[in-house]
Amino acid sequence: MGDTVSDFLLRRLHSWGVRRIFGYPGDGINGVMGALGRIRPPYEGCSHI
Known about the structure:
This protein is an alpha+beta fold. It has one domain. Helices cover 43% and strands 12% of the residues. The protein has 2 helices and 2 strands; from the N terminus they run H-E-H-E. It has helices at residues 5-15, 30-39; strands at residues 21-23, 43-45. It has a two-stranded parallel sheet. The model has no long low-confidence stretch (mean pLDDT 81).
């Protein structure tokens, strides 16, 4: 399978110096979560209270 927009996004963020990503997983971010699993940058999951 080829690269997705999410793969491109994470590579671009890395090229800009982003080394840690914070996020709240849900429906709209599933593509990015999949790319995080393939690329493996440090990811900090968050939850609501």
